[in-house]
Amino acid sequence: MCLPAILFFIVFAYLPMPGLYLAFIKYNYTDGIFKSPFVGFDNFKFLVMTGDLWRLTLNTVLYNLAFILLGNVLQIVVAVFLNEIRLKWFKKVSQTLMFLPHFISAVLIGLIAYNVLSYDYGLLNSILTSLGMEPVKTYSNAGIWPFIIILTYLWQSTGYGSIVYFAAIMGLDNEIIEASEIDGANAFQRIRYIVLPWLKPTFIILLLFSLGGILRGNFGLFFNLVGANNTALYATTDIIETYVFRALMTNFNFSIGSAVSLYQSVFGFAVVLTANWLVKKFSPDNSLF
Length: 289
Fold this sequence. Notes:
It comes from Paenibacillus faecis. One of its GO terms (biological process) is transmembrane transport. The chain is mainly α. It has a domain of 182 residues: MetI-like fold (Orthogonal Bundle). Helix 5 packs parallel to helix 10.
């Protein structure tokens, strides 16, 4: 049963590892990977000197922290509310409607966003113009995009992400709930003193898993909402994935792209080890290892 998963990681995680050598060379097509001149850490120095590395790291980390923290909180809230619904048909309809955004393509989400936010033909500016107000230049205003991206992500992922927490609640012994009701506990007290403590181990495990990818941005969401070449929005929307995409597809700089990806992996590995150490120190039963 483990063989498919083992093969998956061998093919997609371990066999490509020699390609990390690209981060330490000045790659050219004539000489290939292993004959191109070795430059050591010069590619990393270039990223630091240009200031791109700090901007990319800050944007990616802040977005992922917002996704992880706000996403998990909303998923817990949705799971708890679903559990409190007594009408089965209404619960099923609610779950279905909340799951649907997860299955909508990022390309379609980007198209919807453009039709709403476009300066010339967007729905938002059409409404503002009809009310006698000035249209908004959304695609040249970097300050508002963090809110747009975070809200879009939460809208798309909250319903589907709540499945894990809802399943955890389903594993709660009904006798505990019934005993609390006999003792006079109301719904809010049951949630606070029984349901939320029950969800704590699940929250910690999912948090640790998420922290491992804290430097891995949601390329599909960012690329389709913002695009990879809108320089006016780089300050708040440029993440590591979009930078690597430009390095590979626009500048054809495989060495810089590999250097950024290696930095991304090492940083994520360090974050997981640190977070797991903290969890093990304060709550040993909930640590990963």
